[in-house]
Model the fold of this input.
Amino acid sequence: MSRTFLEQAMARLAHAGPELEPGHVWLVGAGPGDPGLLTLDALAALAQADALVHDALVSEKAVAVAEQAEKFFVGKRGGRLSIPQGEINALLVRLAKEGRKVVRLKGGHPLVFARGGEEALALAAEKIPFRVLPGVTSAFGGLASAGIPATMRGVNGAVILATGFAAQSDDRPDWAALARTGQPIVIYMGLTHMADTVTALMEGGLAADTPAAFVENATLPGERVVVATLGTLVGAAERERIVSPALIVVGHIVPLREKMRGEG
Ligand code: SAH
Done:
């Protein structure tokens, strides 16, 4: 039934979708995993690609849409590159110069902690036409799925997205400065350096009893939400065996989950 609803709605929408031309590259966000969070333009991209360059965090269902495309897996996960970024950039440039219709598919949003910016710069330097198709970033998809509001009137007037895995010191967040804002922080790639991050946030002034949570496999069938506090996060991760992909949420938006679920 739902399929019929969608097909009818699509027909009424009559959105043709942008056309992917040979020699062009699109940097496409696939959302956090649930196929329902693919955008229509992402779907149009997948349907037209003849070369699909993707990594580990995109769902197999999304990849399967591009059945006609040659697939190039350039898996990277948790900040560890299995293929150096320079090689991925070079692959995109080569495929475009060969006149392929190239889709570079990334989990979430392609320009949020995904190195899509570097790929865009590499394409620009070679004068290769490209465009960015945004996706739902995992912080917003994951918070919604977990029942945690990203902002709530009276609770927070900002929300911070941070990486826990900054490779270079000049893009490592100043955790103490972030802590001083008192605003909730959603940490991507946070598991590897979690203990250091937690320490830095507490040194910056966040109390050990600040509410915190993990959202693991957000929007996917195995989604898990584990609630803790800043002080108990590291222990909770070990006890619950939290694995990637997971988000760490720190701040007073976390307890709203219980209220929204009618438990509080
Ligand atoms: N461009 C992506 C982020 C890539 S960085 C985006 O916009 O979401 C990879 C990190 O994203 C993971 O370490 C994890 O923290 C987070 N992430 C991506 N997908 C996730 C998911 N389904 N559930 C929880 N976290 C996810």
The pocket of S-adenosyl-L-homocysteine is lined by residues 32-33, 57, 78, 106-109, 112-114, 137-138, 142, 188-189, 215, 217-220, 244-247 (CB under 6 Å). The longest helix spans residues 85-97.
